[in-house]
Amino acid sequence: MLRAIQILGSSPSSSGCFSLPHKLKKPHSNFSLISRKPIEATVPNLSRAHSLAFQFRQGCFFRAFQMSYHHSESTLDGGSPSSSSSTSIAIQSAGSTRKINFCQWCGGPTKHEIPDGEEKARAICTHCGKITYENPKMVVGCLIEHENKILLCKRKIQPSYGLWTLPAGYMEIGESAAEGAIRETWEEANAEVEVQSPFAQLDIPLIGQTYIIFLAKLKRPHFSPGPESLECRLFALEDIPFDSLAFSSMLVTLKLYFEDKKVGRPKFHYGIINKRPGTSPSEIHAYTLDHHLKC
Amino acid sequence: MLRAIQILGSSPSSSGCFSLPHKLKKPHSNFSLISRKPIEATVPNLSRAHSLAFQFRQGCFFRAFQMSYHHSESTLDGGSPSSSSSTSIAIQSAGSTRKINFCQWCGGPTKHEIPDGEEKARAICTHCGKITYENPKMVVGCLIEHENKILLCKRKIQPSYGLWTLPAGYMEIGESAAEGAIRETWEEANAEVEVQSPFAQLDIPLIGQTYIIFLAKLKRPHFSPGPESLECRLFALEDIPFDSLAFSSMLVTLKLYFEDKKVGRPKFHYGIINKRPGTSPSEIHAYTLDHHLKC
Q1: Is A295 in Cβ contact with B197 (below 8 Å)?
Q2: How high is the pLDDT of residue B203?
Q3: Looking at per-residue confidence, does B75 or B269 come out higher?
Q4: Which of A155, A289, B148, B160 has its CA 20 to 30 Å from the CA of residue A189?
Q5: What span, in angstroms and rounded, lies between the C-alpha atoms of A177 and A175?
Q6: pLDDT of chain A along its 295 residues, tens only?
Q7: How far is CA B172 from CA A15, A188, B210, in A?
C-alpha cells in the first residue's frame, strides 16, 4: 500500500561527480526555505524546460536531467486515518514543521536538544532519557515486464486517486526490500512476481523517502485489481500514460526504463528527485533529477 | 555515526530468482522463531562452511553465498545513552519484543490492533487515533578507493570498539543517501570525498536495517580520525583485515568488492544478509548472503 506522497522541493543542485561543500555538512541547515504549509501550496504555471547532459566517468554514466512542466492542481488527501497519519509523519519529519512531543516508550514529555556527541537536535525524553530518532523511509516496488509490456495499477485511494502507478509501498520491519516489493505487488495487483534485478534507487530528501524499484517478471500471467486499485493493465512502452501518473518517482522510473530500453537492456540507476519550490504534490513533472548515477 | 548493530539471524533461504510463496506474504509471521534475548545470546562453536554457486539470468548474476565461522564472543553495548536507545529501537522493532506504548504526538496510550485495510497490527493512539509506523532504517556509507587501497576506520565507540569499518551511519531526514554517506565519511575520517557510483544495497531484515554503500574517491589525500575513530588507514586489497571487521555488512561489502576487483571493475550488488540463528552480533562471519543480485 503506497501511502507515500511527494511534496514541494528544494532547489535543484549541480550534477556530475557528487560531493558536498563543507557548508552543507549539516543536512538540515537549509530547511528554513521550506514552506510551512506544503499541503495548501498553489500551482505556479511553470513553463516546460528540459535539458539533458551526459558524462562518462569511472565506468558509470553521470547525467543531469532537468524538467519542469505545468500541471493541474489537486488537494492532498491521505484518505483513511492510517494513511493520513503516515503521510503526516513524512511531511513533518522532512520539514520539521511539527515535533515529537512525547516519548513513545514511557509517555514522558520530550525536550528538543542536541545530544552529547551529535550535531542535530533530537527529541529526548525528559523522564527516561531515550531519544526518538526520525529516519527516512523506504518505498519498495516492482517494474514488471511481461511480453514487452509494463504492468501499472490505477489507484483507488488518495492521494492521486485514478492515476497510474507501479505497485509499491512502504517497506516493513522484518522484510527485505525485494520481499516488500513482491508483497506490495501481490496486494495491489494480485500478481505473483519474481524479482529479477535492482533497477533504481531514487531519494526524495525533502519528504524523507527513498524509492527502491526492482525489475520483476510475472510467475504466471494472472493479475487483477487489489483493494487499492481500480484497474491493472499491461502497457506497451509507447502507450505508457506519462500524463496520468501518480507520483514523480514513478515518472522518473518509467522514463529511465523507457530510455534504457531504447538503447539496450536496463541499467541500475541512482538519483535524487528534487521538486521545484512552490509546486504542489500533484505536479509530478515539476522536478529535477540530480546526481544521477547509472551503472 | 554508526550506532547500528547486527544481531542474530533468521534461517537461510534459497537463492536464485527471487519470489515469495503465499505463506510468506505476511513478513512477520515467522518471528516466533526469534530469540527473545538476543543480546545475551551465547556462541555456538560453528564450523566453517563456505559454498558458492553462480547462475546467469536476465542479464544479471544470481549467486548463493553461504558462510559460517567460529568467532569470539562479545557483549553488546550501545555505548552512550543515545546510541543505546537507537540500538534498542532497532532490535525491538525487528523482533516485536517491546511495543510502542504512547503516541509521540499527543501522549495518549496506544492500543495494538490491525487498522482497517491493513494486515499488520500497529500502535494506534487511543486518544487521537494516529498510527505510529515502524519502518526499516537506512545505513549509508562510502567504500573509498585511493591508489588501489581502501580507507577503513578503527572504531572508538561501542559496539565493536577497536574493530575496522567503512565510514557509515544512519541516513538522516532531509539528506539523500549519497549526501549521508559523504557526511558520515567527513565525521568519521575527516575526509572529503566524491561519490562515484552506487556499489551495494544489503538488507538485514531481522534488525530492520538496509545498508547503502557507494564507491567514492578522496577529493584530496587528507584524512584523520574523527571523534568516533581511533585510527583511519588505507589498506591494500590483500591487507584488508577480514578477521577484525566490525560488522557482517562490512565483511560482505568488502568481500564483494574484493571479488569484483579480481575480475574487473566493481558491479552493483543487492543482497539479504541473514545471520545464523543463535549467534551473537560479534560473530560477523556467521551469516548467509541470500538472493544476491549482481548487475
Answers
A1: yes
A2: 98
A3: B269
A4: A289
A5: 7
A6: 544 333 322 333 333 456 664 433 433 332 222 222 222 222 222 222 222 222 223 333 333 222 222 222 222 222 222 333 232 223 333 434 357 999 999 999 999 999 988 888 999 999 999 999 999 999 999 999 999 999 999 999 999 999 999 999 999 999 999 999 999 999 999 999 999 999 999 999 989 999 999 999 999 999 999 999 999 999 999 999 999 999 999 999 999 999 999 999 899 999 999 988 788 878 999 999 999 999 8
A7: 21, 30, 14
- A21 vs A25: CA distance, rounded Å: 7
A85 has a chain B CB within 8 A of its CB: yes
Q: Which of residues 97-156 of B touch A (CB under 8 A)?
A: 98, 100-107, 109, 115-118, 120, 122-123, 129-138
- Count the domains in chain B: 1
Can you read off the three cell numbers belonging to residue B106? Answer: 499527543
Identify the three-state secondary structure at position A95: helix
| DSSP reduced 3-state for B257 | helix
Polymer length in residues for chain A: 295
Find chain A residues with C-beta within 8 A of B206's C-beta. Answer: 174
SS (H, E, C) A19-79: CCCHHHCCCCCCHHHCCCCCCCCCCCCCCCEEEEEEEEECCEEEEEEEEECCCCCCCCCCC
**C-alpha distances in Å from residue A220, one per residue of A213, A217, B20:** 20, 9, 13
In a domain, A13, yes or no: no
C-alpha span between B190 and B20 (Å, rounded): 43
Does one domain contain both A65 and A126?
Answer: no
Q: Tell me, what's the pLDDT at B149?
A: 98
Residue A242 lies in a domain: yes
Instruction: Give a yes or no: residue B79 inside a domain.
Output: yes
Nearby residues of A189 by Cβ (< 8 Å), 6 or more positions away: A151, A153, A167, A223, A224, A225, A226, A229, A232
CATH number, position A190: 3.90.79.10
* Structural domain includes residue B260: yes
| A163 interfaces chain B, CB cutoff of 8 Å | no
C-alpha span between B61 and A268 (Å, rounded): 14
Strands A164-165 and A149-155: antiparallel
B89 touches chain A (CB under 8 A): yes
- Domain shared by A242 and A111, yes or no: no
Phi-psi region of B120 (alpha: psi -120 to 50; beta: other; left: phi over 0): beta
Cell of A114: 542536541
For residue B245 the three cell numbers come to 571487521
Strand, coil or helix: A124: strand
State the complex-level ipTM. 0.74
Give the type of residue at B282.
Answer: S
B73 in reach of chain A (CB within 8 A): no
Q: Are A32 and A122 contained in the same domain? A: no
